[in-house]
Model the fold of this input.
Amino acid sequence: MLVAMHRVRVEIRGRVQGVGFRAFVVRRSRALGLTGWVRNREDGSVEVEAEGSRALLEKLVEDLRVGPVSARVESVNPSWSEGEARHRVFEGW
Done:
């Protein structure tokens, strides 16, 4: 029997590239035991897809609203879903 996995995809806008944001997301996600990925987008935003428990994903989204010290987060737009697990580790590109 497959267990549905909680998943969130998040778009973060603001000064979020060139400020260590992806490394911050990788560290926080791994510390929370989440799997997924983070990447820069061509439009200057950062995109995150993470899987795990709903409570831990909500904690990650709250952390994304703050970001690392050098970032200036203007918006965080999460999109929630459930489904079969897609990821085994958390990666940053």
User: Anything to note?
Assistant: The chain has one domain: 5-81.
